[in-house]
Amino acid sequence: MVRHGAAPKPVPLPDNPAAELLAWYDRHRRRLPWRAEPGVLPNPYAVWLSEIMLQQTTVAAVQKYFSAFMTRWPTIADLADAAVDEVMKEWAGLGYYARARNLHACAKAVASKRGGRFPQTEDALLALPGIGPYTAAAIAAIAFGQRAVVIDGNVERVVARLAGIDTPLAQAKPAIRAFAEELTPRRQAGDFAQAMMDLGATVCTPQRPACALCPLREHCRAFALGQQERFPVKGIKPERPLRIGNIFVLRTAEKVLVRTRAPRGLLGGMTEFPSSKWRNAGASQAKESDFSVAAHWRRLPGRVEHVFTHFALRLTVYTAETPSAVAPAGMRFVAIADLRREGLPSLMLKVAAHAGLLEAPRQTRRGAFK
Ligand code: SF4
Q: Which domain range does residue 84 map to?
């Protein structure tokens, strides 16, 4: 990171909530490994990497992965040169694996077409793999100080409360954006974005916000109404459908059978134990499984449950032992002792634990806020 000279800070306007928030941020900002200290220019590579990792994932879960990536691939050129399989393995456990694949594609694009430098505008950032509107705005504001309106889940909550927006969140997004747009200052947009995120994560929390500590209390409609937790107004959530299936753990004394999923789609390119197709619960029993190996299969008691964004999954686990480690076509036996190095996704770590191959994984998926 590069130190720059003392940049003059804008004079706060009276009655300007942004200025009050920025003053609060000077004193209460979270220290995070990807965040530049005051007076230090941000590292766009670190900002980008952290923003991709933080999508759908908690700050606590991301810190370990961020450090591992920065240690192993300290620059975007290093990451671009890495084999995609290695990137996927390092990402294993963080979930939403398309992010890792896009991360690598983006590193390659920036390294090969842009001389290793990220573009600075939202439009140009949006053209890169894996960068959507939120991430483009966050990188433009935080890494390059551009005036961009950055709205994540924390910011939505803070703005909905400040403005007392009375419509359900799904329909309230344009109003939230318009209010956030008005609030965002011309200068220090990056600090402002991070201040809003920090306020949402540490003060304006989903339950029991600490309004007594809030620098925006005087401007807050929800606080004035005494109805902070009513905002943002929640719509009715459609129920997540349930899919079910069978999964097969075939092992020798030291090895276990695995295969690699197709490169695209859910858990794309990740290692898995072979399984039947996952079908909607209630649908008629599939006649054929996409996995069939003759063995003395034993059904394990209990089930493995996992929640994906659009459906919940319940798997029944079968195990069997085989004297020979000859794998069916498209599969392979790997040493159980090396299983962690395979970069199993969380679901497969749960299956491995259920079958007694590994210890149960720790939860990494994020809850409602970063
Ligand atoms: S006053 Fe309370 S509800 Fe309003 S923004 Fe601050 S913490 Fe959130």
A: 18-230
